[in-house]
Write a structure and sequence with these properties.
The protein is α/β, with parallel strands linked by helices. The strands form 5 sheets. Strands 8-17-16-15-14-11-10-9 form an 8-stranded parallel sheet. A 4-stranded antiparallel sheet has the order 1-2-3-4. It folds into 4 domains: about 70 residues, Flavocytochrome B2, Chain A, domain 1 (Roll), CATH 3.10.120; about 325 residues, TIM Barrel, CATH 3.20.20.70; about 70 residues; about 60 residues, no CATH class. The protein contains 25 helices and 18 strands. It starts with 5 loop residues before the first helix and ends in a 22-residue tail after the last helix. GO terms for molecular function: heme binding; metal ion binding; oxidoreductase activity.
Amino acid sequence: MSRINRAEVAKHHSKNDCWIVLDSKAYNVTNFLSEHPGGAPIILKNAGSDATEEFKKYHPLSYLEDYLPKEALLGPVDPNTSGQLRQIKDTNSRKPSKIDPNSNEIPHVSLCVSTTDFEPVAKTVMSHKSYIYASSSANTGASIKANIDDWGRISFRPRVMRNVGEVDTRRKMFGHSSPYPFYICPMGTMGTIHEGAEPEMVQGAVRKGIHTLVSTASSKSSEQIMQSYVDEQRRLGNGSPTQLFYQYYMPVNKDKALELIRIVKRCGYKSLWVTVDVPVVGKRTADRRLQAEETLAVSLVDEGPRDREIGGDNAFAPAMGGRPVQGRLTPYMTWDDLEWVRKEWDDPIVLKGIQCAEDAKLAMEYGCDGILLSNHGGRQLHTAPSALMTLLEIRTYCPEVLGKLEVFLDGGLRDGNDVLKALCLGATAVGVGRPFLYALSAYGSKGVERCVDTFDLSFTPANICSAFRGAGLVPVQPDTFLSKLDVQLRTPTPLATIAEVLWQTCTPSNTRELEAQSTLIRDRVQRHQGSSPASIIAAISQLQKGAEVMILSAELMRDRIASLERANIAVSERRKRKKKRIQKRGVLTKGAGEDIIAQREADEQIACEERQGGKRSGVSRQALARCSRCRETGHDSRTCRKDT
């Protein structure tokens, strides 16, 4: 393959004839413009130039073989040619910053004492486009606002005079211990935020011992990220408890999906977090507005919607602007897909993006090891429920999930108090995203370490001694230390498969009515009709009343049966005592004694008459009662004095 002159590449910089240099090779990407996930403008802006560094901010270079057809490769660029590539003016930001993160022009990292301190610093360092990507949300931002605001709707109920001398904030995620009850969320294309990208984030995480979740949409490959983890662990003598988990976006093609799982397994990631809340990409208004500006800048305003459509993903998953890559983000995933995922993956599986109690229970029934309650950082669905609201819903309608699965949540956590509230409500651990992203952008791995410290301030023994310990918040006891757990649920999710029935409550009087009432309540809970549980509570009260009546009746019946059994035993004992011989301490009643005396007198009278020669009838003779032991009259076997 012949070498390409640089000057020749520079000539091809229009939408009808677009060449670009990537990794010292020239590509004809004219036919790829409409398919690029970031949209055509970002390619056209770099047309006729070397876009390698810009490309690496979003994708690993290995993606070139996966997504560009072989015929797009024109050949290697000749570095010795005199011609120059097209020079690109940097318009990445409307207000490009000249501040060096290592200079004295930004606050020292030690001055960041709250997680919110990182964002304004990062905003001065990041390009405008990168900041828009990191901070944007769906539509008008209602979901991301709810993520943050809902934590303020839960308050503590401090208790005093409690023995809280021992404090242990360590948590385990699938058996892997960490000194912190929180982890770093997955975030894509970190190369746009910091030149060190995901490896820089991982290095800071390893030094602090915090678990980290890696995104499929990373700027670096899964292998590169894991290698940076291994290298940092080796440098620390393998003493860090940090483990890497993998956020998995399922491609449409099953072979590609299996291939990705095998790569993740081969790399050594400890669990697979299957993303289920991005069947399609949400409308991210700020991203769309930015790309409209870029479209205008490269004169594509009059092009068709296919050439300038926006809102999407890179590679496997959502990233900055554009559409999802065709075939890389499946909208067809169902619960049945978990079967083949489980066959391929032996370690824990987590469903990332659960947003209602019904799906949480289904995840448990389908054998998942954990769930992550998340609305994708408020970036997917407008007015989606916050993870906190979903957690409250699970506690109300299917609390058994909290006992059988490891339950994680993310979204809007900005302080250690928020973390503690989540733990009190039953979460295994919580994820933190944007604060770490801003910290990485502003200060690199040192910022990541500092961000961990700002969260951990609420969990240090010294802090607990002065605040939480005095409030009795350790050890954690959810039902004791939190109030406002009756936050009105705002996510009614009726099941379309259940027909509408008239809601009636009654007190059951038999087992059949009890079963019917129980079924009615169970269906009502599953359908979540209305945001208020008042009708369900009323039905449960009636059910309780009926059950109490039946239980009381059963207790009375048991008492009556026991009384009759005792009476029968007493009668039986009396009968036994009557049959016992008098000589052996038997009992003779007054009536029985009078009968014996009367019989004896009758026998004497008969005997006297016989001696006088009087003859009695056969009937009279038959009336004589004789002892069954000695065959004499005047007594019976019980009063007989003769031994056989």
